[in-house]
Amino acid sequence: MKVPAEQTTDAASWWLIGAMGILCLLVSADLGFYVRAASVLPLGIGLLTLIAGMVIGSRTGRPRLSAGATAFLQMTLFTVIGVVLAYALAARAGPLWDDSFAAWDVALGFDWPAVFAAADRSPVMLWIGGLAYHSLTLQMIVAIVVLSATDRADTLRIAVAAAILGGFATIAISGIVPALGNVFDPAAYHILWPSVAWIERDMILGLRDGSWRMIDLTQLMGIVSFPSYHATLPVILAWAQRDVRGWRFVAPVWAGVTILATPVFGGHYGVDVLAGLIMAVLALSVAPWMARRRIGWRGNLPTTASHVG
Questions:
Q1: Quick one: how far is CA 237 from the chain centroid?
Q2: Which of 30, 35, 140, 282 is the most exposed place for a label (fewest CB within 10 A)?
Q3: On the CB side of 251, how many CA atoms lie within 13 Å of its CA?
Q4: What does the alpha-carbon distance between residue 275 and residue 46 come to, in Å, rounded to a whole number?
Q5: Residue 227, preceding bond cis, omega within 30 degrees?
Q6: Please, where are the H alpha helices in the chain?
């Protein structure tokens, strides 16, 4: 019996990036955004370096280099385009959904004042959670390096496709249900860090009223509240490293601490995190199909005797 042989391809991720780019141009048209000139050069150098690594790896027969550079290039482009798209969607968004999200959290039993007060009394846990939350970029870098170095290019392509698909979806949804986030005043606590939502609240309001229009490509800030990408991406990265010795234990623990810390340090509602986890499951369900390609047939060839008669 013949069995279809399958491999993965980067095409799905490139198509998603292209679709995000087109949508970004359409949504940001006439909004008056401008890029800080000094921020273009560092990004350009980084992109050219990754392109060079991808080309060199491909032409010199070094698939691990090519796979790693391609993944880094795709995630970098996704991040830049995705953040600008989120800015543009925020600038065009309708009424804020914070009251609804807060009410849903209460209905689900989330008591955030109690959680924040407990965190304020636990300096060790506070530092562990804070470092985990703010390490999401590092988690992505480690996953790409580990998967490419261990020659798991197929898994890496699926993970990147899932990360981009999940991120694209969260950004698009955020434009439909915009929110400032579960903002709390850090001045009311002793050691609790200001959440990202607290730090970014003026920026989001500025995007909405038109007073914030400069884009610094070296300081892009994620402003998506619902669903939480800090809940989506760690799950995808942990899944991708499930078969890597050592990292099969480290990655899920790292991801779990990140997700638990997300409401405190990201200023996310509980429903943001739950929606982000659902998004991770959906993205990982679709990404393998998106990244798959058929490369022909292989299997048991019929013998000469089978042709007789």
A1: 10
A2: 30
A3: 24
A4: 33
A5: yes
A6: 11-28, 40-59, 63-92, 98-108, 112-120, 123-133, 136-149, 153-176, 196-209, 229-240, 247-266, 270-291
pLDDT in tens, 70-97: 999 999 999 999 999 999 999 999 999 9
Q: Is the peptide bond before 194 cis (omega within 30 degrees of 0)?
A: no
Find the distance separating the first CA and the last CA of the chain, reported in whole Å: 19
Amino acid at 45: I
- Scan for tokens 């989001």, then name that residue: 204
R_g (Cα) of the chain, nearest Å: 22
The amino acid that residue 276 corresponds to is: G
Distances (CA, A) of 215 to 27, 192, 271: 15, 29, 29
- For 188-243, the pLDDT digits (tens) are 999 998 999 999 999 999 999 999 999 999 888 889 999 999 999 999 999 999 99
DSSP three-state, residue 195? coil
The two tokens of residue 42 are: 């560092």
Report whether 216 contacts 122 (CB < 8 A).
Answer: no
Q: Are 175 and 25 in contact (CB under 8 A)?
A: no
